[in-house]
């Protein structure tokens, strides 16, 4: 069900949307409830998505990627997340917080070594910024990296890391200068097979249960010096630039969940009868559907607009603010949509046999990860006031 022509896609983008929608509807959606209940990671689907070019969407063809633009990317993440938000986050993380910073800040040698494996879907990527004591305040992280010859030796712990346990490459930010504040952080690409690297037990989550989230541990972990991203001391800048970019993936994930919540609400309203007629006949139900639809269109348009500005490159700094605005609005609107759609399902909405129950659990994290709503408001206000 399309709700309108928002930010009309080009012919090429329309083709991509059709292909991803068909794959998501036929291959991803049917097993989503079962994977969620079993907490089963969708490895086979991800391999297929890699073959379709969905895991290295910005990676140029010379490194084995599909070379898509940012608007195409948010359109594809939306379609996948409509079918299963767990698959959507795995896709978004590999593309946005792993491939993108490597492409943007990695040496030619690093790109040639790592990107082809990620872009083909042969291997997955991850991003390690958060620590048990450093979430919103990423600059407070404590994992250290000390140079020793041709290696950096990492010690510390990362928390809540998506794709941990399956990903082969992690972009990790660690402290290289204890006295330099945010300028004392450096970013590395850490392969999961280096000595001293390990992954903890998977977290027991409220939602996104078929995605993987676990802590990472570094115990005298030896990372080749050639795996540095950018220069020593640029880690905070790289992390913030990466998040500015990746928030669009989370906004798109929220739009996908929102779209599905609307479809489920509409279908249920037509089928469910009370007082001798479909509940869709009641004006209160019609108003609920209208409210979900209007916010969906607004969230989708803002997300695609922010993606277009990011793609064009913004000298004024608007790209970062718009990405935060899109992430803030789309995630909060999707939460409202799932709440309204579940309410419209009555008691059945509270039953795991109904898809809206999974969406209600899955959508919750979109206002939390890659910067909480409160942090987005701070970013937006700071950029307005500066
Ligand atoms: C499923 C999942 C997957 C994740 N994946 C990753 C990943 O792959 N890589 C990664 O690095 N991290 C990941 N995270 C971590 C996520 O990014 C953090 O949880 C998030 O940034 C918030 O940090 P925190 O949990 O420490 O909350 P805190 O920072 O402790 O915040 C607690 C509350 O205080 C508020 N708050 C904090 N500071 C302020 C302030 N200055 N003003 C107003 N309010 C404030 C917050 O908004 C929040 O409501 C993931 C988290 C989840 C749940």
Compute the number of helices.
11
- The helical percent reads 40-55%
Per CATH, the class of the largest domain reads Mainly Alpha
User: What is the CATH topology assignment of the largest domain?
Assistant: Butyryl-CoA Dehydrogenase, subunit A, domain 3
Q: Low-confidence stretches at least 5 residues in length (pLDDT < 50)? A: none
Give the count of structural domains: 3
First-to-last CA distance:
42 Å
Strand content: 15-25%
Per DSSP E runs of 2 or more residues, the count of β-strands stands at: 10
Bound molecules: flavin-adenine dinucleotide
CATH architecture of the largest domain: Up-down Bundle
Largest sheet data = 4 strands, mixed
**Average pLDDT level:** 96
Structural class: alpha+beta
Strand arrangement within the widest β-sheet reads 1-4-5-8
Shape type: globular
Order of helices and strands: HHHHHHEEEEEEEEHEEHHHH
Fourth CATH level, the homologous superfamily of the largest domain: Butyryl-CoA Dehydrogenase, subunit A, domain 3
Radius of gyration: 21 Å
Report on the structure:
It is a single chain. This protein is of the alpha+beta class and 386 residues long. It has three domains: 114 residues, Acyl-CoA dehydrogenase/oxidase, N-terminal domain (Butyryl-Coa Dehydrogenase, subunit A, domain 1); 108 residues, Beta Barrel (Butyryl-CoA Dehydrogenase, subunit A, domain 2); 150 residues, Butyryl-CoA Dehydrogenase, subunit A, domain 3 (Up-down Bundle), CATH 1.20.140.10. The protein has eleven helices and ten strands. Strands 1-4-5-8 form a four-stranded mixed beta sheet. Strands 2-3-7-6 form a four-stranded antiparallel beta sheet, with helices on one face. The longest helix is centred in the middle third of the chain and has 37 residues. The chain starts with 10 loop residues before the first helix and ends with a helix. The relative contact order is 0.12. The mean pLDDT is 96. It binds flavin-adenine dinucleotide. Flavin-adenine dinucleotide binds next to strand 1, strand 3 and helix 11.
């Amino acid at each position: 069900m399309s709700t309108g022509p928002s930010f009309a896609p080009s012919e090429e983008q329309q083709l991509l949307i059709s292909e991803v929608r068909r794959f998501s509807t036929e291959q991803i959606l049917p097993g989503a409830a079962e994977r969620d209940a079993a907490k089963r990671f969708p490895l086979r689907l991800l391999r297929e998505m890699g073959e379709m070019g969905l895991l290295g969407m910005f990676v140029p063809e010379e490194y084995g990627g599909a070379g898509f633009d940012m608007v195409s990317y948010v359109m594809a993440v939306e379609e996948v997340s409509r079918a299963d938000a767990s698959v959507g986050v795995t896709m978004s993380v590999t593309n946005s917080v792993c491939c993108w910073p490597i492409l943007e800040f990695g040496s030619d040698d690093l790109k040639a070594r790592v990107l082809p494996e990620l872009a083909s879907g042969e291997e997955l990527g991850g991003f390690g910024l958060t620590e048990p004591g450093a979430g919103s305040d990423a600059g407070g992280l404590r994992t250290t990296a000390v140079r020793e010859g041709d290696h950096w030796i990492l010690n510390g712990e990362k928390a809540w890391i998506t794709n941990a346990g399956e990903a082969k490459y992690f972009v990790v930010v660690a402290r290289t200068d204890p006295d330099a504040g945010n300028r004392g952080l450096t970013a590395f690409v850490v392969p999961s097979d280096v000595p001293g690297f390990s992954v903890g037990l998977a977290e027991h989550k409220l939602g996104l249960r078929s995605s993987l989230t676990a802590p990472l541990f570094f115990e005298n972990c030896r990372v080749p010096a050639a795996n540095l991203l950018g220069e020593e001391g640029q880690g905070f800048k790289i992390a913030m630039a990466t998040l500015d970019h990746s928030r669009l993936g989370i906004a798109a994930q929220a739009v996908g969940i929102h779209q599905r919540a609307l479809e489920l609400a509409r279908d249920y309203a037509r089928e469910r009868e009370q007082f001798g007629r479909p509940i869709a006949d009641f004006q209160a139900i019609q108003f609920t559907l209208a409210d979900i639809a209007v916010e969906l269109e607004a969230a989708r348009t803002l997300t695609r607009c922010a993606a277009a500005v990011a793609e064009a490159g913004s000298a004024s700094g608007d790209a970062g603010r718009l990405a935060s605005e899109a992430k803030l609005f789309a995630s909060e609107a999707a939460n409202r949509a799932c709440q309204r759609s579940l309410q419209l399902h009555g008691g059945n909405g509270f039953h795991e046999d109904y898809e809206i129950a999974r969406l209600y659990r899955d959508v919750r994290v979109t206002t939390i990860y890659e910067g909480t709503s409160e942090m987005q408001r701070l970013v937006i206000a700071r950029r307005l006031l500066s």
